[in-house]
């Protein structure tokens, strides 16, 4: 989703939430100069952003809680209900009741939903915690596929992978059962998520990545840069931003947000809370987001202090009795003072142009396909690159002969015919047209040993 769409979505959300908004007598759409919003969501929407909160499903029966939720926020993250242990408690048996309840509550009131989270080393169901290797890889990819498919069209952004980098000075990956399936597990998860829900923004999400000078921040930055350079489908980076005395807000936070945005991804503040809820620090965080055109929005990790996972730190915007704290006033003022990103964005837009391009003639220049393989004991992931020749192509077909014993289990960004032996692959709706000399990537996962794969390519 481009910024224009985020803005449209937030305005649509605002319009749907119209009853309360109109009652408050506020403008539904930004004008120049923008009218001051009277709630967090309305004010953020006027700046083309959203303002969200984590929601615990069991609190939806608490009217004091839902009164604030429904009044103030236009984005919702399920605090625990979409995690792996909640959605697939037994292998192959999916459980969506608690998550659906939150999604329905939000969407029926015009709020959007961030999905959290498809793959994480923590909060795994017991059956998954004890898995490893290719069985775990397949189970993880199946989980990503099933859950993203269930919520397709209902979730605007997914935290596809959560907290995969190590704390400390290494700047490398965190050890986990998922990491031990191969370093490419993160990109495999992103590809599976894209295939399951091509319309959702796909985010990498982590904590202690706020300080630009920290090794962990740089490690994530390097991964995102690598993903963008290789066409791995990543759209956004989530900064949890749990600020406390051990991990305080730092003034280079804005540099962090803008540096990631410069890689061509959106940035989102996904789990904000601040020990003590300093109004000045909350204001700085909001100002930093508003200063970065690709900072789409801010989510606080809970509504009242009593709702916080760190309740004793009183880190949120509302007291336990539901009244607004000074930090709330600071955030609202910062939102109302903030700038609206200019349209179109400085990064290349991905919206379709107003005049659709004329369909190129059949690809007389043909195409070539190359494959790179990441092999582990008992399985592999093949990433296939289709490159158009001297003229643009409208579609492609790739043939790959798999050696005996190799069986495809999962694929992304391509239609498949055959799982063993001679397999044939064709483009999906969104990656058939490739410009002259340009390329598109897709892939599959298989059991067995890849050996040397020699793909053929024909263009249409
Ligand atoms: O639902 C059970 C309840 O039946 C039981 O009686 C109770 C006893 O402890 O536990 C309840 O589950 C707890 C759940 O929160 C709901 O309250 C879990 O034990 C507890 O582990 C779980 O903690 C959550 C934590 O993630 C798990 O890692 C927090 O609510 C949630 O705020 C927190 O959120 C994470 C983000 O997902 C990722 N970033 C960090 C953030 C804070 O830790």
What would you note in describing this structure?
It catalyses: Endohydrolysis of (1->4)-beta-D-xylosidic linkages in xylans. The active site is at residue 271. InterPro entries: CBD2, CBM2/CBM3_carb-bd_dom_sf, CBM2_carb-bd_dom_sf, GH, GH10, GH10_AS, GH10_dom, TAT_signal. One of its GO terms (molecular function) is endo-1,4-beta-xylanase activity. Keywords: Carbohydrate metabolism, Glycosidase, Hydrolase, Polysaccharide degradation, Signal, Xylan degradation. It contains 13 helices and 17 strands. Residues 11-33 and 343-360 have low confidence and may be disordered. The radius of gyration is 23 Å and the shape is globular. Helix 3 packs parallel to helix 13. The protein has 460 residues and is of the alpha/beta class. It has two domains: 40-337, TIM Barrel (Alpha-Beta Barrel); 367-459, Immunoglobulin-like, CATH 2.60.40.290. Helix content is 29%, strand content 23%. Helix 4 (63-72) links the parallel strand 1 (50-55) and strand 2 (75-78). The strands form three sheets. It has an eight-stranded parallel barrel with strand order 1-2-3-4-5-6-8-9, surrounded by seven helices. Strands 10-11-16-13 form a four-stranded antiparallel β-sheet. It has a four-stranded antiparallel β-sheet with strand order 14-15-12-17, with no helix packed on it. The protein binds ligand G3I.
């Amino acid at each position: 989703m481009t910024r224009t769409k985020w803005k449209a979505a937030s305005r649509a959300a605002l319009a749907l939430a119209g009853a309360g908004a109109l009652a408050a007598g506020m403008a539904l759409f930004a004008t120049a100069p923008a009218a001051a919003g009277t709630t967090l969501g309305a004010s953020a929407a006027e700046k083309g952003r959203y303002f969200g909160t984590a929601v615990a499903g069991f609190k939806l029966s608490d009217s004091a809680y839902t009164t604030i939720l429904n009044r103030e926020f236009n984005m919702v993250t399920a605090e625990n209900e979409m995690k792996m242990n909640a959605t697939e408690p037994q292998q192959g048996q999916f459980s969506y009741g608690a998550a659906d309840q939150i999604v329905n509550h939000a969407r029926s009131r015009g709020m959007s939903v961030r999905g959290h989270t498809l793959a994480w080393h923590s909060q795994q169901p017991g059956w998954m915690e004890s898995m490893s290797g290719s069985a775990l890889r397949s189970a993880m990819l199946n989980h990503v596929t099933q859950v993203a498919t269930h919520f397709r069209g209902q979730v605007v952004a997914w935290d596809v992978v959560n907290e995969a980098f190590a704390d400390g000075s290494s700047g490398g990956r965190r050890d986990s059962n998922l990491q031990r399936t191969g370093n490419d597990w993160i990109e495999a998860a992103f590809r599976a998520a894209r295939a399951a829900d091509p319309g959702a923004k796909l985010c990498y999400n982590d904590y202690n990545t706020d300080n630009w000078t920290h090794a962990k921040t740089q490690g994530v930055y390097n991964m995102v840069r690598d993903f963008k350079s290789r066409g791995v489908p990543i759209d956004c980076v989530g900064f949890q931003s749990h600020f406390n005395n051990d991990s305080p807000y730092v003034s280079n936070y804005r540099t962090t947000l803008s540096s990631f945005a410069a890689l061509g991804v959106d940035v989102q503040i996904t789990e904000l809370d601040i020990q003590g809820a300093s109004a000045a620090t909350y204001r700085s965080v909001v100002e930093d987001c508003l200063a970065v055109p690709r900072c789409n929005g801010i989510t606080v990790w809970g509504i009242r202090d009593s709702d916080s996972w760190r309740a004793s730190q009183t880190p949120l915007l509302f007291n336990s009795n539901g009244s607004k704290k000074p930090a709330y006033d600071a955030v609202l003022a910062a939102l109302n003072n903030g700038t609206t990103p200019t349209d179109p964005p400085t990064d290349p837009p991905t919206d379709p142009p107003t005049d659709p391009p004329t369909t190129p003639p059949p690809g007389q220049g043909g195409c070539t396909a190359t494959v790179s393989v990441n092999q582990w004991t008992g399985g592999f992931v093949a990433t296939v690159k289709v490159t158009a020749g001297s003229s643009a192509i409208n579609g492609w077909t790739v043939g790959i002969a798999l050696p005996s014993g190799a069986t495809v289990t999962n694929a992304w960004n391509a239609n498949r015919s055959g799982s063993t032996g001679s397999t044939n692959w064709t483009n999906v709706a969104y990656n058939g047209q490739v410009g002259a000399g340009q390329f598109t990537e897709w892939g599959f996962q298989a059991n067995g040993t890849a050996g040397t794969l020699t793909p053929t390519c024909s263009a249409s």
